Amino acid sequence: MSTPDVIVQVALDVPLRRLFDYLPPLDQPTPLLRGMRVKVPFGRQTLVGIILGQKDHSELPKDKLKPISEVCDLEPIFPSSLCDFIEKTAQYYHHPVGEVAFSGAPLAIRLGKTKKTTNSKALLAPPSPSIEIKANSAQQKAIEAILETQSTFAPFLLEGITGSGKTEVYLQVVDALLKRDQQALILVPEISLTPQTYERFNARFGAKVALFHSRMTPKERYDVWMQIRHQQVSVVIGTRSAIFLPFMQLGIIIIDEEHDPSFKQQEGFRYSARDIGVLRAKMASCPIVLGSATPSFETLVNAQTGKYQHLTLPMRATSASLPKVTMLDVRHNKLEAGLSSALLSRIEKSLQQNQQVLLFINRRGFAPSFMCYDCGWLAKCTRCDARLTYHHKKQLLICHHCLQQRKMMTSCPDCEHKELHPVGQGTEKLESFLKEYFPTLNIARIDSDVTSKKGELESLLQKAQNNEAPLLIGTQILAKGHHFPHLGLVAIVDADGGLFSVDFRSVERMAQLIIQVAGRAGRVHEAGEVIIQTFHPEHPLLQPILHQDYAKLSQILLQERKASLLPPFSHLALIRAQGPKPELAQDLLSQVQATLAQVQKGEVSILGPVPAPMAKRQGQFRYQLLIQASERKALHQILSYSTVILENSKLAKKVRWSLDVDPIEMF
Ligand code: ADP
Ligand code: ZN
Ligand code: ZN
Question: 142, 403, 651, 662: which is deepest, by most CB within 10 A?
């Protein structure tokens, strides 16, 4: 009897939903273990892959099978538990497993390299002495509940307003787990925006803490990866891709500001680090804590139905009181740069009292559009269904969707009229107006236009923190996790955009934003104040926002969602397709739709194909097919069919398509 063949199943970083069969290498006697990297021939290329399994039979004839060219590792660099997690994640998102495996991995890992690791600076830094803080009773209750779970899966929602002491809860829980020799993962929405989180963990735990995020160099990221793998690092503060780090003794996952959309990757492999965080915690048998002042509705419903334990920190941990939120009715008012005269005098008053002022406007640039008043011409992007934004300083019209730039014109291209006007406002216009209005004042504008330069954001934030700039103008960047001790007044320049959007999540988002921004005010001093400018003071949803009554607001909105069967009361997936001609994308999705219609059952509805909300972008015509299901299982069945159709369709070769499970944006 001949010995059974050994066929090695390898995951490759290619867009195909399957594993690839190879024979063992010809000359290497090393054991072939799950999680080791290998180099294999693939067409004319050599690719790096990960061994995920072995079997004794391949569908391919034996003479078609090729041997592995090289085994890169002496031991599995992807621990088996990580391989399991990668496979489950790939299944959930119906995404090619090799792409999932490599998506969070540093470059050297993807290239099959093994390098010597060096200790990063953070590791050499001695732990600074830190002050012991005694938990208050709400914190103590939360800490005990989390630690009580020992090593079992237990999801928690930790709901507490800004400053209620959530971070202190994380610190004390992690402290206890480190004493049990466990590792902790803390995910934050954007690391460059929350330097305080790292500083506080580093101050408490010193060398055991590492950072992991995309602004680090590939080498730094590689070092952290290996240090986690070899348990030289116990705590990671990272952004979403840190969920794929090779922890060996994961004792807890903490997702801070869990409602933040940045936890969802919006292109390529579209995953939610929060959602798969829950999966990873389950697989690692450890607790997961989702912390927020304004939990996502998905998480809220999970807490309400008892799937998650609901912990609350109802009060601020320090004596700083909550800001007062008021509304400023600006109907019948003449606005200048979007500001009413009443708001301007409030700003002046606060500045005179030496209080810092933050103006919040969710639009960067000078003006969202540029117009000829004579013939109505509007500056539009030629490659997208979008207007060009006027950038005053650069004297350019820029498309925020494809980055197309056009020089400013001096006359209307249609009617040659000599006067063109910016319409609406953005951060830049506010800044230029306020610089004229307060000529001697130091004003800081903080948005992604000024923060793309390395170090610029950090230095602006520093200036903001120690009140070198008494007047701050910013986009949502400023709403995230900063502590501005001198802040006395926050003004939401335009709340109406969020109240009247087509996106069903827009009110939820705006409320989260306003409550977060409000949390920036009055952290140290006496209570701060938040002013919301609106043309719609009678809007029913403004009342709960004014009272910062997130519970009430979510109750109203969740009723609406339930009535119209929107998430979290149903499950969605979006199949997007785009091509150089409109028919191509539409035809492909019609093909999918027609096939699905035959297998679909009552609990699933398939809507479309319809043109995407932005039907043309970067010169591509975009369509989408929305799948809505009351049960997740039914959704997964439909998606499995869909990927088979899409991968085998001839049309799909001319069209780019993607799958988005649990989409949070409909674009
Ligand atoms: P959050 O993460 O909810 O915004 P933090 O944990 O940052 O809240 O706490 C806000 C402030 O209160 C911090 O300066 C923190 O050091 C302080 N703090 C937290 N818990 C306590 C406590 N039990 N006693 C005194 N101060 C506390
Ligand atoms: Zn004109
Ligand atoms: Zn464009």
Answer: 142
- Which pTM was predicted? 0.89
| Intervals of CATH 3.40.50.300 along the chain | 137-313, 324-366+425-560
Of 356, 377, 399, give the one whose Cα is nearest residue 523: 356
Q: Residue 281: in which H helix or E strand, if any? A: helix 273-284
Q: Which fold has domain 324-366+425-560?
A: Rossmann fold (3.40.50)
- Contact call for residues 287 and 150 (beta carbons, < 8 A): no
Phi-psi region of 641 (alpha: psi -120 to 50; beta: other; left: phi over 0): alpha
Ligand 3 centre from 390 Cα, in Å?
A: 13
Fold adopted by 137-313: Rossmann fold (3.40.50)
Cα–ligand 2 centroid distance for 416 (angstroms)? 6
- Angle at which helices 166-179 and 137-148 pack, to 10 degrees? 40
Can you tell me which atom of ligand 1 is nearest the CA of 196?
7
Q: What is the pLDDT of residues 44-98, one digit of tens each?
A: 999 999 999 999 888 888 888 999 999 999 899 999 999 999 999 999 999 999 9
pLDDT digits (tens, 9 = 90+) for 311-359: 999 877 666 667 788 999 988 888 888 899 999 999 999 999 989 999 9
Q: Does domain 571-661 have CATH number 3.30.70.600?
A: yes
CA distances from 211 to 245, 278, 407, 608 (A): 12, 21, 41, 43
Q: Which ligand is nearest to the CA of 203?
A: 1
On whether the 7-102 domain is CATH 3.40.50.880, my answer is no
Per DSSP, the residues of 591-637 read HHHHHHHHH--TTEEEEEEEEEEEEEETTEEEEEEEEEESSHHHHHH
Ligand 3 ion: Cβ-proximal residues, 5 Å cutoff: 381, 383-384, 399, 401-402, 404
Instruction: List every span in the chain annotated with CATH 3.30.70.600.
Output: 571-661
| Residue 499 to residue 497: CA distance in whole angstroms | 6
Q: Does the beta carbon of 140 sit less than 6 angstroms from any atom of ligand 1?
A: no
